[in-house]
Design brief:
Helix content is 19%, strand content 30%. By secondary structure, the chain is an alpha/beta fold. It folds into two domains: 223 residues, Spore Coat Polysaccharide Biosynthesis Protein SpsA, Chain A (Alpha-Beta Complex); 92 residues, 3 Solenoid (UDP N-Acetylglucosamine Acyltransferase, domain 1), CATH 2.160.10.10.
Length: 344
């Protein structure tokens, strides 16, 4: 059976200031950390043994994931006081992974990838290493993979310009490897995209790309983070939205209190123990975190409220992200705010 390693040690610099307080894999999408959705998908496809590497805010990850039993997994942790790079991190976990083919997932990538089909392709091609790719639009923010017949990889372009475009298949950072790959990874800081994959190409190893036609998003910046929330609420990605769907597109978690004269506009999610006061309007495309409070006559549109946020009475918030414990004072007006770390 496949084992897995989830890369969860990145510093998340492009997601700052969110990642100052919250490790990137723990940033919530529909009131569950991105990492939660990754682990749930692994379990869905029968994987049981998973290694997580940690660096920034490791205690938050350990506290949430524990031993993995909540997901039906057996989790182990690999602590990196100094980051080893994507491939270097996997080399550190060689003793855990070396017995059979294994899958690498990104702890900050939201996807509903069909791991079973991905592994089937890998085996049929007798591949040494297989990369999951995703067709992307003209934003070319990702490394591009060039393939030949049967999906065999012929080359790579790192964030190409228009004049270099030969393909639109982005590297998702989701990989399947045969254990022999460890012979090609040195015990030092080492990267998959810039070093290992080009090395395997030079060595003429049978390496392949498999295109995933479902959902994938690298939550690398605040724009992509917002898009991922919208995609989940629109049903574009097959992940579980917590709570009971009381009406189409409206989910309310256990212990939440919504005043009868509050208005919820789909799609939206109300977290556990949250309070929505009389006259408040929540939605569309708003996620209210656990134990958050929305005061009387406050209006929220396309907002992401982390746990414990307090929105004062009569406030108006649009297209804003409020980090955990933030407070918005009475009758405030907030538009397109990226982060609110304290009272406004």
């Amino acid at each position: 059976m496949l084992k897995a390693m989830v890369l969860a040690a990145g510093a998340g610099t492009r997601l700052r200031p969110l990642s100052h307080q919250t490790p990137k894999p723990m940033v919530p999408v529909a009131n569950r950390p991105v990492l939660h959705h990754v682990l749930a998908n692994l379990a869905r496809h029968g994987i049981r043994d998973v290694m997580l590497n940690l660096h920034a805010h490791p205690d938050q990850v350990r506290a949430y994931c524990g031993d993995g039993s909540r997901f039906g997994l057996r989790l182990r942790y690999s602590m990196e006081p100094k980051l080893l790079g994507t491939a270097g991190a996997v080399k550190k976990a060689e003793n855990f992974l070396k017995d059979a083919p294994f899958i690498i997932m990104s702890g900050d990538g939201l996807s509903d990838i069909d791991i079973t089909r991905f592994y089937r392709f890998h085996r049929r091609r007798r591949s040494f290493a297989t990369m999951a790719t995703k067709a992307v639009d003209s934003r070319f923010e990702y490394g591009i993979t060039v393939t030949g017949k049967g999906g065999r990889i012929r080359g790579f372009l790192e964030k190409p310009s228009w004049g270099e475009v030969l393909s639109n298949k982005a590297n998702t950072g989701i990989y399947l490897f045969e254990p022999g790959v460890f012979r090609h990874i040195p015990r030092r800081v080492y990267d998959f995209g810039h070093e290992l994959w080009p090395k395997m190409l030079r060595l003429k190893k049978p390496i392949f790309a498999w295109e995933w036609k479902g959902y994938w998003c690298d939550i690398g910046n605040l724009t992509e983070y917002r898009r991922s929330q919208e995609a989940v609420l629109n049903g574009e990605v097959d992940v579980e939205i917590p709570g009971r769907q009381v009406r189409r597109g409206i989910w309310i978690e256990e212990g939440a209190r919504v005043h009868p004269r509050a208005k919820l506009i789909a799609p939206c999610v109300i977290g556990a123990r949250a309070k929505i006061a009389r006259g408040a309007v929540v939605g569309p495309y708003t996620v209210v975190g656990a134990a958050a409070s929305v005061g009387p006559n406050a209006i929220l549109k396309s907002c992401i409220l982390f746990d414990g946020v307090d929105v004062g009475a009569g406030s108006y918030l649009a297209h804003s992200i409020l980090s955990a414990g933030s407070r918005v004072t009475t009758k405030s007006a907030v538009y397109n705010a990226e982060i609110l770390d304290s009272g406004v």
